[in-house]
């Protein structure tokens, strides 16, 4: 056994140097090749070397097997020799592997120049070279000064391949556009050389080519114009045996009214896709050029189609929707895109989902049109008044009271008729009923905002306009109450009803406050003081100005407002007027005969004119709380001490209805001098 191992050791002693010598020779040869091709750039090649390397590799493997089987005593000198041989062999093997990898890479580079290499094979070789360059089996590879040259050559060859692919693809699929002053012309020519186009496209897909420029051209210069503009489109597959031609031209600027209908758009887009399919190279069962393009542009194309074409053409009338075939047409178009393999896996049902929502969009458009029409009605500056009979204008909550006619604007009558029509449509079209009714709510809400804003100056400055607006709001509220059985399921109308009443009342109350302020300003001229000897024209002018104000209000309110509202509003103003007049008279400490006579004349003016503010003058006694007191004040101003005493009648006479004992005593002191008779009169007033 020892003799056998001695023989094997002698073989190793002989073979290892021989193998290392062979490796060194091959390394030297590889170094020459590398230096020539990647450092000095001389043309040297040796195709036989790889075959020789295979033989050398066999010898190395056998030698490694021999050394690994040796069992030498570690104390023996031969052990040290064996370890040295093994280390030398390991170093040699490392150098051999590096040399072999470099030679393999070089051989692949050389194979790129072989004739007959197609784009696919070239791409495959470059991919293999890239893999070998990236697999750094030995860190020393990166430190080799020429290794960067290998990477640089790969980048150069790869860029050359990509450029060749682009140039060839652009020759096979020519995308051209020319702009003129007012028009634009677009031409797409697709060569019928399917084999070459297949090679180019397949290789481009394998090299992960970005077709964004193609997508951008198609979107901007073809599909976008076809969707929004009338175009002249020519698609020709037969005239030229070598290519398919797609030509379109269109105006750069086109009016909205000239936009094509959706049927024309879908037809043109389908025709374009049909002819573009000549470049739709099928790579495998799962991949083709159209799918690549779809992943980059389908969502944008569908969005453009929906927003710029389909949305606009969805009918906005019930009749139009009944006659429309848009849902069916869009579904068929979506199926066509799937058939042509223009799919991306994410947006393939986008158009079908849109088709299913067309009815909803139609309802929204319909209701938007309803709202727009209602707003236009509201904006009409109608100064025409319409008489509304009592049965058309029933005040909720006061049905037992006597009803009366009033005036509303022609605008609100038109709006009410329009609401009737909308409500009828709502119940005639069950699917859209809720949306229609919600639109009615929106119309009434808009009315309370838009009309006051648009007519702010008129409503706040002109009494008749504020009265009409109050009536209009009540009229619309009456309409809500009348249709309560149809609207009761929608709780928002209860709130709207209250808001309508409040809106009209607020505007009218603001007008009443304005009239009160105006009246009080006029009464600034009605000044009474102890220094006054007799009444002048100033006091009379103040009273007449207020009377004139009431008469003007009568002219613009009596035939406009419901009778009860008119009576309540005007009687309230008159009552405040009388209260202010009498307060100032009663505050006088001394009333001379001349002043007393003047005050009686003013009261006579009031009592002669103000009853005429009402259809039944006698009603003023019930409507104006201060009226009786005014008449009694006149009696006091005209009466003697005896008459005043009799009217008081020890607290049982008519004066007790409106005056307190202190008020009567004050008036007696102001009207009469201090005599025994005055004292007796005052004493009797308790």
In total, how many domains does the architecture comprise?
Answer: 4
Task: Provide mean pLDDT, rounded.
Answer: 83
Largest sheet: 4 strands, antiparallel
Distance between the termini: 159 Å
Oligomer: single chain
User: Residue ranges: pLDDT <50 for 5 or more in a row?
Assistant: 1-9, 38-47, 395-403
Lateral strand order in the biggest sheet: 1-2-4-3
Overall helicity: 55-70%
Strands, count: 6
Shape: elongated
Subcellular location: Chromosome, Centromere, Kinetochore; Cytoplasm; Nucleus
Domain ZW10 C-terminal helical: 541-685
Organism: Anopheles quadriannulatus (Mosquito)
Keywords: Cell cycle, Cell division, Centromere, Chromosome, Cytoplasm, Kinetochore, Meiosis, Mitosis, Nucleus
Description:
The N and C termini lie far apart (159 Å). The chain is mostly helical and 686 residues long. It has helices at residues 2-39, 48-69, 77-111, 119-134, 140-143, 147-172, 194-206, 212-228, 262-276, 289-313, 318-323, 326-339, 350-379, 410-428, 433-454, 456-461, 463-482, 484-487, 492-522, 537-557, 563-586, 593-609, 620-623, 627-638, 641-648, 661-671, 676-684, and strands at residues 173-179, 183-191, 231-236, 243-251, 385-388, 406-409. The chain folds into 4 domains: 1-114, Methane Monooxygenase Hydroxylase, Chain G, domain 1, CATH 1.20.58; 166-366, no CATH class; 384-514, no CATH class; 516-684, Methane Monooxygenase Hydroxylase, Chain G, domain 1 (Up-down Bundle), CATH 1.20.58. It is built from 27 helices and 6 strands. It is elongated.
